[in-house]
Specification:
By secondary structure, the protein is of the alpha/beta class. The chain has eleven helices and twelve strands. Helix 1 packs antiparallel against helix 7. The chain is globular and about 70 Å long. Bound molecules: 4'-deoxy-4'-aminopyridoxal-5'-phosphate.
């Protein structure tokens, strides 16, 4: 990857060297099943529980409120479907038009296969949900309200503090939030949040690793039936070493947020000012964003063409969510914000981390100018 620039950290991240070191060391040593009753199994189990407590402490929840999962997609599915199935009298879900596909498609499945009524809340042109829309949508039979903290395509930050308060005050629904793109980037407060999902590989951790926070009072049935692992909420042999390093990953991410947050914001501002000098470049991310994502469109060049041209110029970027990268459809997130199909079909997402530099940002702006001039538009 010499000279290649990685601007796709919302898609996934390089594994932190410290995390990788701990992981490889532990993996060689601790291979027996954490449920085994001999000493080695008990030791692994004890270490995993220590890591669970550490992760819980960092998130401000109790250890038995942490369910280790394979990532945020699984956590989102479990939160939405697992809770709905445990609340049989309630057949209504509230979510938004801009959720990640793992929430969106879980809700669609609840609608189409299980006959639930789902409200997909609209967003403002800033890409965020209005609190009074949430309030209006609440019903006596609302089982779950699932609203993401930070949007993965635009970096827009939802007013979760107000939303959770309204949900708690005005209903008996359980409030779930997908914090995958928020944790390690902005402060996340899980007080009054019933469930939260996150993923390790977005914060310089391992792929196939995540957590669902499920507060003790939330009813839930497991989607993966099996043994009593994860308090009975997720069957299957524990990925013990991966779960152990989750705590380390989270700690490093929260430390890095403090250490590098201002640097990344400054880098984002620098890149943004460069992009704004290019005629025809339209910024889609709102002012109020998580500080590391820039979504823009150059309407004359469709996303896929632009992405290929940037790839040839040495830049790794996304168009929309990587989980949607094989779809030709315009971005449903930008459409929900009221942007035209043309603008929503020509978007590019840059997502930064502390490993990026101003020099890379400047090179990007020059490359973009070059690509656009090649298309005869500058
Ligand atoms: N939610 C959001 C907001 C995401 O950005 C992603 C990753 N694209 C996911 C959920 C899914 O995460 P995972 O890859 O861990 O399943």
């Amino acid at each position: 990857m010499a000279n290649r620039v990685y601007f796709d950290h919302a898609s996934t991240t390089e594994v932190d060297p410290g995390v990788l070191k701990v992981y490889t060391e532990l993996l060689q040593k601790y291979y027996v099943n954490s449920e085994s009753l001999y000493d080695e199994g008990t030791e692994i189990s004890r270490m995993m529980e220590k890591a669970r407590s550490a992760a819980a402490g960092l998130l401000g929840v109790h250890a038995d409120e942490i369910i280790f999962t394979s990532g945020a997609s699984e956590a989102n599915s479990e939160a939405i479907k697992g809770t709905c199935f445990a609340c049989p009298g309630k057949k209504h879900i509230i979510t938004t038009a801009i959720e990640h596909s793992s929430v969106m498609n879980a809700c669609r499945q609840m609608e189409q296969v299980f006959g639930y009524d789902v409200t997909y809340l609209p967003v403002t042109e800033e890409g965020t949900v209005r609190v009074h829309d949430v309030e209006k949508a609440l019903r006596d039979d609302t089982a779950v309200v699932s609203i993401m903290y930070v949007n993965n395509e635009t970096g827009a930050v939802n007013p979760v503090a107000e939303i959770k308060e309204i949900v708690k005050k005005k209903s008996h629904a359980y409030f779930h939030t997908d914090i995958t793109q928020a944790i390690g980037k902005i402060p996340v407060d899980l007080d009054m949040v019933d469930m939260a999902s996150m993923s390790a590989h977005k914060i310089h951790g391992l792929k196939g690793s995540g957590v669902l926070v499920r507060k003790k009072h939330v009813p839930m049935v497991p989607l993966i039936s099996g043994g009593e692992q994860e308090y009975g909420y997720r069957g299957g042999t524990s990925n013990a070493v991966v779960n152990m390093v989750f705590a380390r990953t989270l700690r490093t991410a929260l430390e890095n947020e403090k250490k590098y947050g201002a640097y990344i914001k400054d880098l984002q501002a620098h890149l943004l000012s460069g992009l704004k000098t290019i005629p025809g470049v339209l910024i889609n991310s709102p002012e109020n964003n998580c500080g590391c994502v820039i979504n823009f469109s150059y309407e004359e060049i469709p996303s896929e063409v632009m992405q290929n041209a940037l790839n040839r110029a040495g830049f790794m970027v996304s168009a929309r969510s990587t989980c949607e990268s094989h779809s030709d459809n315009p971005s449903y997130v930008l459409q929900a914000m009221g942007f035209s199909d043309k603008r929503a079909s020509s978007c590019i997402r840059i997502s930064l981390a502390h490993t990026n530099t101003k020099e890379e940002a400047d090179r990007f702006v020059s490359a973009l100018k070059e690509i656009i001039s090649h298309y005869g538009k500058i």
